[in-house]
Amino acid sequence: MSASDLDWVHIEGLQIDTVIGVYEWEQQQTQRLLIDLAMAWDIQAAAQKDDIEQALDYAKVTEAVTAWVQQKPRQLIETVAEGIAQLVLQQFGVREVEVKVSKPGAVPSAANVAVSISRRQFDSPFG
Ligand SMILES: Nc1nc2c(c(=O)[nH]1)N=C([C@H](O)[C@@H](O)CO)CN2
Asked: Is residue 60 classed as helix, strand or coil in its secondary structure?
């Protein structure tokens, strides 16, 4: 299947409150992150059988991503984006994932700041 043939399952605007930031004061409180995910998944079997077991269950992905993000304090939204991508690829067998992590409160003069990444099975952050 080529990239243009892929189906996608989306989770958009997922709100997660967690300890995130490089400054000391940011390690003393939670801040809100917004997560957007697009996950490549062939939806035909699920659609034909109308069967959740064949589907990529976005509720289960949401639960796992939220638990991972809140597991411990982190400094960079880059770390959060990479961790979510690897979780989705490895735990759910997704072949390709796009992750955007927004930290809308971080820069008062900006509407939003974010990082976005695209990862596939067998991509590694360590090369
Ligand atoms: N590329 C990044 N730049 C910055 C980050 C980050 O996570 N990635 N974080 C900060 C601070 O934590 C900031 O959010 C505090 O307002 C600064 N730059």
From this structure: helix
For 48, the enclosing helix (H) or strand (E) is helix 44-49
Residue 61 DSSP code:
H
Look up the pTM and report it. Answer: 0.93
Report the separation in Å between the CA atom of 97 and the middle of ligand 1, taken as the mean of its atom positions.
Answer: 23
* Distance in angstroms (rounded) separating the CA atoms of residues 33 and 31: 7
Instruction: Judge whether 103 and 81 are in contact, CB under 8 Å.
Output: no
* pLDDT tens-digit series, residues 49-64: 999 999 999 999 999 9
115 domain-assigned = yes
Task: State the residue range of the domain holding 70.
Answer: 21-39+52-120
Cβ–ligand 1 contact at 12 (below 6 Å): no
